[in-house]
Amino acid sequence: MRRSALRIAAVLALAGPVLAACGSGGTPNPAADGANTQAPAPADSALDPNATARVRLVLEPTSLNLTTTAGVALEQVLLDNVYQGLLGVDTNADNKIVPALASGFETSPDGLTYTFHLTPGAAFHDGSPVTAEDAVWSLQQVLAPGSKQPNAKTLATIAGVAAPDPATVVITLRQRDTNLTWALTQRQGVIYKKGTDFAKLDTTENGTGPFRLDGWQRGSAITLVRNDAYKGAKAKVAKVVLSYIPDRNAANNAQATGQTDIETAAEATLLQPFTGNDRFTVLRGTTTDKYTLAINNAKAPLNNPAVRHAIRRAIDKDALIKSLGGAGVRLGGPIPTSDPGYQDLTTIDPHDAAAARKALADAGVGELKLTLKIPNIYPAAIGDVLVSNLKDAGIELTVKQQEFTAWLSEVYTARDYDLSLVNHAEPHDVGNFATPGYYFGYDNAEVRDWYAQAVAAPDERTRTDLLARIGRRVAEDAGADWLYQAQTLTVVRKGVSGAPQHHTSSRLNLAGIGITK
């Protein structure tokens, strides 16, 4: 069997924040130039083990149930901190896959059998040891008919899961699956205690991570407390209060006045109080945040590719990024810069309002009135720029801001929309365009075939080439528009160390945060 590089001492994935720097095209690492870094973490003896870290977040989850509720707001808080899978990711190392509840694994030469070895001493928060039977049961629930797990399809190649002994899990596949290990790092790979009543997970938990859920004050904050029984590297603070402050000005004020220690998703145009101020550090980090303009491919006249291309050509992405303080890079396609298959596709549908207007006329579309549905957590400037740009191309756009729960219901679930804007923060999600039932309404048989080939690819180069082919085809079909890839800005007060710096919209490992005495 081929031995995995993960066959090392079990460690926890240490996660980090997210946003970007302005440019005309994507770069492999949009945060590399001029990125601020934190000072080296002080020795543990200099930290206050009884401290409380207060962290500002934007989007509050509607439930804490990872088995039924979609959206990265849950993953951001719960993965790595409260729940773990066999594998995790290190966001400080470009989302490298690392050990979690498995200390390592081996793969058979044909790529159809994965053998995982559980980390010794791992336990649930109720004190029960984590066993292979728990892992088998958890994965079987994802695969079971009627599963409500939003990401269940990513494990569809699994033919069986077995526990030959209490510390070993064997996964057998129907076909090679290059996405398997990545999928196991996500919510669908979380290991629950066998027999867990998923219906009770909306407000309770029995995870395995370095933090336990202490309370959820809806509309305000989620509080986590250190799991002192944790066998891995313990959290450096006793408590973390995650305060949901969607208003950017209010968040800035909270950080400036000491109500929060860390402000994630800081507004680029509002950094003046912190820039050059020795009481704060502003961290810039990479993300997979794709601010995606969904164009309802299943609804006339948007089912006409010419109309979708016209909409894309009408939008001045550089002006949009500038209006946001430079907090983004051009993308041009569905694959972000750090994901396999990325290529610079920004030359497709360059901004040209006159060409957009002509394309609509050539398509026989006269007066076009569209509505944009956008969650109210996003800057109003985005809608303002889109209204102005589309007007120049002869399109009348009405912006409808709504609560995120309403967006989930109307757009994501019911697909009742013309245009929609949302941050697709998830990495490795180009497969959404190979899923006709997804809310984009995009359906291309070749893309579906290429994605299936990529999943079963015999090597990484073949997989990457196929994903790149998908990215280009989706962009050439104007399956959606990608306004920019965000870069994270995180403000950290003096005396706080270990703040997550990269990919914080989708994963926020809090265990490394320390506060000096």
TrEMBL record:
Keywords in alphabetical order: Signal
Any one GO biological process: peptide transport
Cleaved signal peptide residues: 1-20
InterPro entries: Peptide/Ni-bd, SBP_5, SBP_5_dom
Single GO term (MF): peptide transmembrane transporter activity
Gene3D superfamilies: Dipeptide-binding Protein, Domain 3, Periplasmic binding protein-like II
One cellular component (GO) term of this entry: ATP-binding cassette (ABC) transporter complex
Stated name of the protein: ABC transporter substrate-binding protein
Organism name: Embleya hyalina
Lineage: Bacteria, Bacillati, Actinomycetota, Actinomycetes, Kitasatosporales
